Amino acid sequence: MFFDRGAREDGSWPAGVPALKIAIIGAGPSGLATAIALMKRLHRPFEAWLVDAEDAPGAFGNGAAGLVPTTEPARDLSVVPERPDDFAEWLKTNWLAGGTVATLCRPQDLHAPRALFRDYVMARFGEVMALRKDVRIRTFRGHVRHVDAGGATPRLIFRDGECADFDHVFVATGFGTAQREAASWQAAHRAAEHLSGLENPPPLTLVGNGPRLAAILLHLRADGFAGDIHIAAASGRLPQPHARPQPGLAFGEPPASRSLQEAFRYVRRECRSAEAREGGQWQAVVDAASARLAIVWRNLPQVERNRYRRHLLRLHRHFSIRLAPDVHRRLAAEIETGRTRFVAPRAPKSADETVIDCREVPSARALAGLLSCDAAALSIDDGGHLAHHGASIPAISVVGAIASSLRPGPFTFAETVRQAYRAVLSATPHGLARTSER
Ligand SMILES: Cc1cc2nc3c(=O)[nH]c(=O)nc-3n(C[C@H](O)[C@H](O)[C@H](O)COP(=O)(O)OP(=O)(O)OC[C@H]3O[C@@H](n4cnc5c(N)ncnc54)[C@H](O)[C@@H]3O)c2cc1C
């Protein structure tokens, strides 16, 4: 157990009002955003268990990982949906005003170290908890093996055989336990240390093609690791950079058919023609297409959704999640040196080949495994509401990266926060939000 602490251990729950019991599985950014949304929008007493197999809340900002800039600028990292500049304002007040951190750009445009983003999220978490005398939050270390949705209310079954019943469960398991970020950092450090001690070291292979890979690779170099690095990524190219927002974008005629493959071909064509134009940026085309897809998605047949999940989701994710411009520049310069190069993904040829998994792939199968059902029968709407063969699964919501294993997004933190608030507000089967007034 990380800690077991109530907002008010003296228990000032109003007499006669039963407290709801809620579980949030995963204490990453999405789990924390969900806990904040609950405290801000659910106006009745509740006890929430923030359960994580490995990481304490906010651990994504610890150690070397905390020094790396966020992929998104501060203007896109608010935990308060009605105040999009909340993180930028917090940075300005706490770090920039006194000159502790000097910046050449506006705080909104800053890609702050993740440790600062973590501090901001934890600060807002603490502030809202202090206002809720009728809420008890427990953070709990436990590996959830199964979420049983078959009973009157959902039940969590833990790996050690313990179980607990809840009125509502929010699943925020992100990249799962098999692809935990902390494990990638630890393995990379160990491998670099080992290889640096060898006379003729074989290359170090990093598997993946996203922000985690970029952060670990640049950190190893900054730390003095001079050996060859191979990046094993099917796409064979760098993670994508951000571009400046581009207003007034004009598009060609979209395809008349409702085939997703046609739609993606169309987006590719549009990206190429945007890049050919003076100052044109493919990023703006992808963002506009993603917003449109989120609307089309609602009426898309399950068979098309499954096709998207199998064939297009990875590509869509790859082009939607972008690096801070400075990180992208440093990565491009690193490739230029020739010490780091792309290789095709393949199984290690020998036992001494050192391979570090830096992938960030949310797995629909992991989610389906948790619920003991078939991934192809699952769907999630933009409020994180889960359905099986189209029939709603009551009292279970899915938030953040894991939700994007089954639908287009959320790929950005702003989308995750909106989804968390929608999930809280639409979690009505047991009346979670019906009593909410604000
Ligand atoms: C350098 C870098 C910069 C980044 N910048 C941004 C950014 O600007 N914006 C952004 O949105 N994201 C960013 N990310 C990604 C971000 O850190 C998150 O990892 C990602 O958004 C997913 O968050 P999450 O909470 O959904 O999942 P995760 O962070 O993967 O957290 C899920 C948690 O669930 C736990 N868990 C999983 N399965 C179980 C189980 N069965 N039982 C109990 N616990 C379980 C895991 O232990 C984990 O702690 C960045 C990542 C990197 C590496």
Automatic annotation (TrEMBL):
<feature type="domain" description="FAD-dependent urate hydroxylase HpyO/Asp monooxygenase CreE-like FAD/NAD(P)-binding">
    <location>
        <begin position="23"/>
        <end position="175"/>
    </location>
</feature>
<dbReference type="InterPro" id="IPR036188">
    <property type="entry name" value="FAD/NAD-bd_sf"/>
</dbReference>
<dbReference type="InterPro" id="IPR038732">
    <property type="entry name" value="HpyO/CreE_NAD-binding"/>
</dbReference>
<dbReference type="Pfam" id="PF13454">
    <property type="entry name" value="NAD_binding_9"/>
</dbReference>
<dbReference type="InterPro" id="IPR052189">
    <property type="entry name" value="L-asp_N-monooxygenase_NS-form"/>
</dbReference>
<protein>
    <submittedName>
        <fullName>FAD/NAD(P)-binding protein</fullName>
    </submittedName>
</protein>
